[in-house]
Structure formats: structure tokens, C-alpha cells
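agent> call fold_tool(seq_1)
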Amino acid sequence: MLSSLGILKNKNFSLLITSESTSLFGTLFLNVALSLYVLKLTGSPEKFAAVLALGIVPHIILGSVSGILADKFDKKRWVITFDILRGLLCLGLFAFSFIGSINLPLIYFTVIFISSCDILFTPMFMSILPTIVPQEKLVEANSVSRTLNETMKVLSPLLGTLAYTLAGLGTVFLVNGLSFFVSAITIYLMKLPEKGEPTGKKLTFLRDISEGFRIIYADKRLLSVVSNAFLTHTFLYPFLFVGIPYIIVNVLAGKNTDYGLVESVTTIGSIMAIFVVPITKNLGVSKNIGIGLLGMLVPVGFLFFLGNSDFIRFLTGHSLYIVSYFSIINFILFLAFSFYVVYFASYYQSEVPQESYGRFIASVIVMNGIGKVAGYNVVGMLFATNSLIYPLIFLAIGMSLKLIVHIPFMIITRNIEKGTKVENSTGVKA
């Protein structure tokens, strides 16, 4: 762990993760409050899921364009601009909350606006890290970044729930707006490398858009890794972000604070990943991603207890049981998931050419967005059947598919490693 923290001596990296974590804190602070607010307004898992899916639509529409912007324009200026735009909207909503009520149409607009800024912002933001951190330090950088972000996830859901419960949605908008401005100031203080002249042939607009997808499909290992991300967004995320709050509040008659506690306490599992990453680093990327996937499968089995009516009655109305049960499951799930993401991100940061990185990330976001929209709507419909077994089966199928699509990555990497060993031992290329 201490060796990983040495990366903080890189001033640009420290500023980058400060900006990232501050912005993330405000966003999650808003998301947990908005989830509870929308769930209260609608009372329907389908409508709740539809609102969440609405936020993904801009990712699909604007995703490819955002990649072109990230690769061709000043990243620093654009990141600051989108931080300021989101901050102004949130402060405006804070002011509006004093004279009017935050109704569902206004929430629709807010979700679409913030999501549109987010998709135009994210590829640029993510493409900064590989330009300021040496390739051999990417695992350490991603490990520290992930840990700090997960620390924010410990604090933000609980504080967001408390702020929403005690002070209302307006105060939540205020905190989120200020967090975006802090993020913008931090990015302003960074000194990024000068953008060099683009290499290779100039592409047309349509070729630019397709470039990210071409990179994915040209490399079977990248395709395997990206497919895994697609399955995560299609099966796992919808269950976590729609299913868990719905089960706790609507099925088990838990309190809003129960959900906030589960979100905060179990995120400690994600923070613990920083202690595990250095221990297994020598096993290689392929094996570590596989370990993470297997670890994510374990808690899915415990979730199937929710298909038993006696177990549901045992949990219903008992905050201690509800919080303990979901905290244990999510602790294991997020420990494995965060461990997996560190190696997942480090792999494509080292493999994708810098001049095409933004378009690659944008293409991944588009694919993940399509998966999320489909997943949210399917999960919403499955929960509306009033039987938890159907969404649980949906989750189990998704997790099994994640393991299957990792097999090509694992086989190809093993063959490459064998060839490298032969070359090193004989001094001749295998």
C-alpha cells in the first residue's frame, strides 16, 4: 500500500484525483438523494428505472462525438467548462427550491442535462491520466484513485441521505454545485503536457466516430475486456442501483437511512482493494481480472436467499438485519469489483494508443450506455412482477456471462506469456 501512495508525489496526478473525488462526492451525494426522492414520487420500480435509464440516453447519442472532442481539443479547457456548467445548474436548482417544488419534469431535465455534460466530460477526463503517469505506474495510480473514490462513496451516500432527510433536496443541489466548482479550480491548477500534432492519416467525421469501435474489434483481448464492462452495465449496475434501494425501502419496509448506511458501510470493501492489489500484482493482469470476477460471483449466491418468503419476513422491518445482510454482500462484491477495475483500467490504458484514447473511451461509454438502458428497463419490469426470483436470475445470468467472455482474454494472454518465457529462456523469438 505504501509503495502505491508514492504516486502522490506526482503533483498533476494528486490534483487530478482531488478533482475526480470531489466531483464524485457531489455527484453521489446528489444521486442517492435523487434516487430516494424519485422513488418517493413514483412508488414504482418501472418508473424509477425509467428515470435512471433516461440519464443514459445522452451517453448513447453523444458518446462518439465526445471521443472526437477528447482527442482533438484542449482537454483542460473542456473539463473545466463542463464542471462549471453542471455547477451552475445545481446552484440554480438550489435557488429555485426556495420558490417552487422540484417536480418530475424538472428532474427529467436535470438528469438529461447533467448526463449530457458528463458524457462530453468523461472521455476527456479519463484520457488525462495516461498522459501524466508513466505506464509502469498505471496500476499504482489506478489503485490509489480507486481507493480515494471509494472513500468518497463511504461518506457521500450517508451524508446525502441525511442532508435530504433533514434539509431537503435543495441543500443537496447546493453541495453538488459547489463540488463541481472545486473540481474545476483543481483542474485549472494542473499543468498538462502540450498536445502534439496528430499522427497517422486524417480521418473524416464518420471515420473518426468509428475509430474507437475499430480499436475494440481489432484486438480480441480488448474486445473481451470491453464486453465484460458491457455485461457489468447491463446486468450488475441495474440490480445494484434499482434493485437494492427498491428492495430495502419498498419490499422490506426499511428506512431511507438504512439504504444510506448500506451504501456507505459496504463501500469499505472497495477501499480494502488497495491492500490486495500489491499482494497479487505479480500474478499478471489476466489472472487478477479472473480473480476479481470469481469474487464478484460469490455474493450473488447469497442474494438468492431473497427468493425465500420466510427470509423476507425475517428481514422485513428490522433495520439491523437489513443493513447487516446487504452490507456483508456488498462488502464482498465491491471488494472484488474494485480489485477487478484496477487491472481492467490499467490494461486498456497501456494498450490503447494515446491519439485514439478518447474515441476508444467514448465507444466503450456508448456500448455501456446501451447496456444500461436495456438493463434498467428489464430490471424495472422484473421487479414489477412482485417476485424477487426473476431479477435475481437475471443477475445470475449476467455474472455467468461475464466469466465466460473473460475466457478468450485469459487464453490469449496465457499463450503470449508462454511465448515470452520461451523467448527469454532461449534468447530467440518463439
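agent> call fold_tool(seq_2)
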Amino acid sequence: MMTAWAAMSVCDEAERLTADLVGRVSGEPFEVVWIHNGESVQVEIREKADDAAGDRPGEAAGWGVTFTTSLRTRWARIDLPGREPVQSDEWLIEAANGPGWLGFLADASDLLAGTLDPEMVPAIIAQIVVPRLASWCAVYTAQNDYGPVRPAYLWHADETQIDGLREELDEVQIPSEDGIAVLHIGEWQSLAFPLTARGRRLGLMCLGRRDRFPDEAIQIAEDVGRRAAFALDNARLYAQQAAANRALQRSLLPPDEPTTPGLDFHVIYEPAGETNEVGGDFYDLFPVGEGVWRFAIGDVCGTGPEAAAVTGLARHALRLLGREGYGVAAVMSRLNQAILEEGERARFLTLLHGEIRRVDDGLDIRLVSAGHPEALRLRPSGVVDGVATPQSLLGVFPEVHFEEDDVHLGPGDVLLGVTDGVTERRSGSRLLDDDGGLAKLLAECVDLSARAVAERIRRAVQDFAIEPSADDLAILVLRAP
């Protein structure tokens, strides 16, 4: 039997579905039956035959073939508009007793492993289980092992019912005990599954259906909950590590953009890697007297905590020794000794360090390049030349004597310092600095400001290769007024 409302709401779709099913009959006499199942309409074609089921008919929400002693029934189901899809328990029975269950769980694991964003995991959990296991899913998460759970994500097979369901859930006492709990939410059959990983309670996965939860659905939901909990825990650990790396990286860089009256200065710094692992490149610019500044751009071998220790040591030593009045070469010698004294924890360091002094006709610079990519000077005429003598990198040899190079920047002259994230940017077998590639790029920057020069170099690095860079990048540009 069908109500008039049900018949009118799906009449056209049901007729098309019926025509599709009738077109599959074998020529034997058959009977057409429409059955109203509350939230869906099932169309059945009953005939005397025993051939295979064939392909899915039309846009049916569910379909299949059943047999009796003398009849074969092809059937297809249509969900009525305005109602949430009915869970197909046929697949549950088959899945829980065969490879279908493993396939579903494997797909769920792949989806959960596809993000390391803890804010995304609850949404993925809900969309895995709806509508296959439940009509709706609400995920609650806890900030710590013992804190209260808070709503993180709500999903309903019928999106128009989400707001109403959210209001119902706001009035429900969310259980805090371990194990599966029954929730009392209106006419829904609702269960809460704990999300626990590595002995920590991370939250709850609440599911609701109009009918009773089959044992197979509970079994699969428990397994999904375990996998979801580990995915959420991994995402949180990843996010915490990334946040710690970013905080430590910020602590190793200048806290503020330096004020440099009479000096056009710009720096670009980009850490590589998805988690921005700390270490690698660094830069600094700071005053040591009236009209006198010190600058540095360096690259520590490797990344991680050991590299961060050398980065912090170098940055603070440069500032302290510079303000104590030590010359550039003397600072480099003392920093080299300090790194060597770190013993096995030390990392090699390449460093371009200099002092800038304003003079009437531009800037005078005393410069030391310790194993660092060559510093380049751009003249207003477009001529580019190297201005620093290559010397030993830091942290290798105890007896090293550093010599300062005197460099003058006249009006409009530009000094460029970069780390090997620029010069060794790779595209196939070529490096960006092959055949003087960086000098050629700089030659095209005549009459540009320091910021414009730095940005042009960065764009060239990005455009040189399609794949993301695996190395940190730092670009420092000084321009004489």
C-alpha cells in the first residue's frame, strides 16, 4: 500500500525505475508491485526466471534480486524526498562476514590518514559513517585526557535536519564513562562510542538511527572508532610538533623588522618542509652604534634541535660580541671556537657577516664570507661582481684566521646575500646558479628597491622548478641611498 503523498512525490522517478526494471524481464509473465516502506518506495518486478541480477537500475538508492522456489524478484528502492536515507543493512550482514568489511575499513583508514589537521579529522569521521552505519553522526573532542568533551562536528544524511538535531543534542548529557553508551535523543536509537588512543580519552563518536542498531553495525562502528581515535591522536601530535617548531623558529629570528634610517634593506626568509622544521637558514640586522649596523645571513648544516642550537648560539653571539666592540673578523673567530666547543652536538655553519657604516658617498662595509655562497654587488650600470673572499666555514677547523674585505656601495649600488636554497635550487640536472645564473638575475634589477630585488629573486627561485623546494631560503638585500 502507498499513501497518496508518497505516490505523488516519487511518481515520475518510480515510473522511470519501473520501466527500467521491466526492460530487463526475460519475456515470461511478470507482476509489478510498489511497496511503501515509510521512508522509501520499493518497486518489485516478480517473474518466473532464474538468470543473473544484471546492472544497477536507474538511480536507485538500493537494488537487488531475491528468489523463492518459483519466482525471481528484481527490486529497487527510492528514498522519499525530505527524509534521510535508510541504512542498507544488507551490506552490513555481508560486510561483517566477508571481505566487504575489510574493504570498508581500509577505505576509512585511507581517508583518516589523508589529513594531519586535527580540525579535519572529526568531519572525516562523520562522513565515513553516514549514511552507511547511521543517519547522523556527532563527534565530540576533549582538549586533554580529563577535560570535558565539546562538539566538534555534526553531520546528518538530510542536511535540512542538522540544525534541529544540534538543538536536541545540546540538551543531552554526553556520557563520560568508557565503553559504548546509550543516548536518549527523541525518537532516535543513539549510541556513543569512545575515541580512545594510547590510553588517552580523546572524545566520542555518537551515531543515531531510526531503527535498532544491528550487531554488525555496532561491530564496524567500534572498529572505525578505534581507527579514528588513532588518526585524531596522530594529527594532534603532528600539530603540536609543528607549532613548537614554528615558535622555536621565530625565537631564532629577529623579533621585529629593524629600523634602518638611510639604508634600504629587505630580507626574505622561507623555511622548507610541511612542518617548517626548525634550524637551517637565519638572518639578522642590528645596530651597534650611531649610523653603524651589523648584518648576518647564515645556513646551519641540517635541521632539527641540533641545528637550532647552533642557530641560537650564532645569532646571540653575533649580537653580544658586536655590541661589545669586537670587529667582524674577531667575531667570526670567536664564534668558530664556540661552535667547536659544542663537541658532537655542533653543526657546520656557513655565514656572511658584515658591518655597515654610513658615509657621505654611500655605505662602507667590512665583510667576511665563511664558506657561504658568494656575495654579489650590482652597479647602476648593470655590472655585477663578487665582493667577498671565500674563507673557511665555521665549526670545522680550530685554527682559522679570518680576514675582512672592504666593500664600498656607492649611490644605487646593491649588495645581495643568499643561502644555498637559492643558488642550489634544482631543476632536473641544472642548478639555478649554473653559469652565473644568480648574477644574471641580479643584473636585471637595476634601479629597483631592495624589496623589489628580493622579491624578483624569490620569484625566479620559485619559477625555476615545479616541485617545492626541499631547502630553506634566505635572501638579504642592501641598497645604498
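agent> summarizing second result for user.
Residues 215-251 form the longest helix (37 residues). The first strand starts at residue 30 and ends at 36.
agent> awaiting next instruction.
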